[in-house]
Design a protein that fits this description.
Length: 296
């Protein structure tokens, strides 16, 4: 099996599926039929998306169209590998295709793409706080016969301390939790999905201090939703802990953690807005919107 087979078509209808970043500054569309959808757990995907894993689906390059109203940032995350992001809201966006197929993030689709996850790849690099429990095939790296480079995970970037550490994809920005984590959730709202370009956002609430790279931070606040804000690295686009909202805690994108924080996600929230292509299999409490006080 080669890269084209991994992307191979699996949806029968034809048409265009629209997608965009959170702020709407970058839009794209892909033409059906789409190919294989996979969850990738590699450290680079987790950092770039700030999530438990990234979900990508193959699309034919000939049916892909990219429309950008704001600049697209580009970061070379590996030799020959480039990750693109919206420079205004930092959502992961596709670059231009360089072959027959292009892989696009599924979290940004405006409608049901009609395909469903096929497997987990790079499961050997899985975040320690996330459990794979959906029964899909798991591969430590690429599926057998697919080929492609297997890169080493990141090493330690910060001196050890009493609490968990984190950093962006490029390593320019680092942070450390300065106290105990209070709670953690998986949020399925459409804003989080587009912001993370993923199935959902895993968010840890804890006190945080930046240890390096603050001069490379920018921030995005969604118009009309002042509490929906976060910082991101202007070099690589990784979402990072947002500013303190006055309660001493910040929202930490758990995919950017370098250490196990100890606390696991405690609930799924805004499941009424869940991506139609993602199914929740665990037994955590589920709330259609924001949970009531003291719910978990």
């Amino acid at each position: 099996m080669d890269a084209n087979q991994l992307a191979g078509a699996s949806h029968e209808e034809t048409g265009m599926i629209e997608a965009s970043c959170l702020c709407g500054g970058v839009e794209w569309s892909v033409e059906e039929p789409l190919g294989t959808m996979s969850h990738c757990h590699c450290a680079r995907c987790r950092k770039a998306h700030g999530s438990a894993f990234a979900t990508y689906v193959g699309a034919r390059a000939s049916g892909f169209a990219l429309r950008a109203g704001v600049a697209i940032g580009r970061y070379a995350s590996s030799a020959g590998g480039e990750r693109c992001f919206c420079t205004r809201c930092a959502a992961v966006v596709p670059g231009e295709p360089d072959g027959k197929w292009i892989f696009v993030p599924a979290g940004n689709f405006h409608a049901d793409p009609g395909v469903r996850p096929h497997s987990h790849i790079f499961a050997a690099s899985k975040a320690p706080w996330h459990t794979i429990d959906d029964g899909l095939p798991c591969f430590d790296a690429w599926p057998p016969g697919t080929g492609g480079a297997v890169l080493e995970d990141f090493g330690v970037r910060e001196p050890p301390g009493p609490h968990a550490r984190g950093s962006c994809l490029c390593g320019a920005v680092g942070y450390q939790l300065t106290g105990a984590s209070r709670r953690a959730v998986n949020c399925h709202c459409s804003r989080c999905r587009r912001a993370r370009s993923a199935a959902f956002a895993s968010i840890l609430f804890a006190p945080v201090a930046y240890t390096r790279g603050q001069e490379k931070l920018a921030s995005y606040t969604l118009p009309g939703a002042p509490r929906f804000s976060y910082a991101f690295c202007t070099v690589c686009g990784s979402a990072l802990p947002r500013a303190d909202q006055g309660d001493g805690l910040v929202g930490v994108p758990m995919g950017t953690l370098d250490d196990d924080p100890g606390l696991r996600p405690q609930a799924h929230i805004f499941v009424a807005s869940k991506a139609p292509w993602y199914t929740i299999h665990d037994a955590l409490p589920q709330f259609g919107e924001f949970p009531p006080p003291g719910a978990f």
